[in-house]
Amino acid sequence: MRLDTPEGNFPPTRRNVAASLFFAGYATAAVSSCASPVTTPSDELITEDVHINGFNGYSLPAYVARPAGRARHGAIIVVNEIFGIHDYIKDVCRRFAREGYVAIAPDYFDRAGDPAPMTEFAQIREIVATAGYEQVMGDTSGAIDWLRAQRFTNGDIGITGFCWGGTVVWMAAAHLTHIKAGVAWYGRVVRPAPGSWGSEEERPWPLDVAADIDAPVLGLYAENDSGIPLEGVERFRAALVAANRPSEIIVYPGVQHGFHADYRQSYNAEAAADGWARALAWFRRHGVA
Questions:
Q1: Has residue 19 been placed in a domain?
Q2: Which one, of 148, 168, 146, 164, lies nearest residue 156 by Cα?
Q3: How many domains does one find in the chain?
């Protein structure tokens, strides 16, 4: 899961764009014409683009939203879907900030490009495939280090992620220190079938490390997820129980993958609201406050 391409050979990144580090808008390949995305205001918040020390010393851009003032707060790392850092992910950060958290969304795909404005899934997958397991864990570790060094954080760190990012949550909870709790939204937990997307890289998956997941993680899944069969989710749940791990999995009946993504056709307002309330309660219950 290594990035063997020298950093200097990647296409120009958004780090070189003066106006903003991130694409302004919603993921073009997934946005629904009938969607009504939630917009969280930024008044009384501080929002900024920063850089963190990522894998192999890479200067990785990240979006941060936090309460204004001098108080110290718990922090949440927000891990994006395959579409990168677009308005939905930034809005999730602002939602956490309004709950009193410092929220940071690292741009894991910055080395290879920006998938958000793309319309072709083949192009998006090419970018996502460059973010290998070692890089992603290294970038997440860099986000943890950055948070721990800030005067406005209190050392309590949680992590949440959606789809691709949901898998990252489980793996980070198994391998990275200083994470107190996680919430994984419909992230793949078993190795993809040979020949399917994501199976090319030789890497561990959550089922492989179930016994090592020490930080409590709440998994939020969809009954009608065409990409993540419930059979695999149930196998993973059984592995967590057998290993006596402090994690839980909830499956929402009748909903689809991406039920929290309010810019997509799969959005389900009831399940999204329930999952959000459970996520906040989970973090507070496990000391991220």
A1: no
A2: 148
A3: 1
Report the CATH number that the domain containing residue 44 is assigned in CATH. 3.40.50.1820
Of the residues 163, 260, 262, 286, which is catalytic? 163
- The answer to whether residue 16 is domain-embedded is no
Instruction: Find the catalytic residue in 86, 225, 262, 286.
Output: 225
Question: Which run of H or E residues covers position 46?
Answer: strand 45-53
Within a domain: 38: yes
State the residue range of the domain holding 203: 27-285
Cα 105–Cα 251–Cα 235 angle in degrees, nearest 5: 95
Active site annotation includes 139 = no
Encoded amino acid at 166, one letter: G
Q: Is 257 a catalytic residue?
A: yes
Angle 175-178-181 (CA atoms, 0-180°, nearest 5)? 80
- Is residue 198 helix, strand or coil? coil
Structure tokens at 190: 């078993």
Nearest to 173 by CA among 127, 128, 116, 215: 215
Cα–Cα dist 185/193, whole Å: 21
The reply to whether 86 belongs to the active site is no
Q: How far apart are CA 72 and CA 35, in angstroms?
A: 36
228 is a domain residue: yes
Q: What is the pLDDT of residues 61-72, one digit of tens each?
A: 999 999 999 999
For 43, the token pair is 């008044």
Q: What is the pTM of this model?
A: 0.92
pLDDT in tens, 222-281: 999 999 999 999 999 999 999 999 999 999 999 999 999 999 999 999 999 999 999 999
Q: Which of 73, 86, 257, 286 is catalytic?
A: 257
